[in-house]
Design a protein that fits this description.
The protein is mainly beta. The protein is 0% helix and 53% strand. It has no helices and 11 strands. The strands form 2 sheets. Strands 2, 4, 5, 6, 9, 10 and 11 form a 7-stranded mixed sheet that branches. A hairpin with a 4-residue loop joins strand 7 and strand 8. It is globular and about 45 Å long. The N and C termini lie far apart (40 Å).
């Protein structure tokens, strides 16, 4: 059964960095598109980064050149490296897995990132 568990969130000062992790059970990354979304307070959940089954990465303009998505199959973990964080990056961050072969989507429970001085 597919399970996604995010970790690594927390409080960070503007200009700081964080690395989020998403531990993925029962997922072969070459069969899924993996993605990170974020939901700022009072706003909708938006896609910010994705990596498809072939390893191609895409980023929202708001995080391009600051965030990097990666995956490690040996550790069954998806990552989001975030640098140069600003207060606009404050949100709950979610990882999502979408099967390449079915319409199944799986979500983690989210991890809070707060950027504040």
């Amino acid at each position: 059964q597919v399970q996604l568990v995010e970790s690594g969130g927390g409080l960070v000062q503007p200009g700081g960095s964080l690395r989020l992790s998403c531990a993925a059970s029962d997922i072969t990354f070459t069969q899924y598109t993996m993605a990170w979304y974020r939901e700022p307070p009072g706003r909708q959940r938006d896609l910010i980064a994705s990596i498809n089954a072939g390893g191609v990465q895409n980023y929202a303009d708001s995080v391009k050149d600051r965030f990097t998505i990666s995956r490690d199959q040996a550790k069954n973990t998806l990552y989001l490296q975030m640098i140069s964080l600003n207060e606009g990056d404050t949100a709950v961050y979610y990882c999502k897995a979408k099967s390449e072969w079915t319409d199944n989507n799986y979500w983690g429970q989210g991890t809070q990132v707060t950027v504040s001085s």
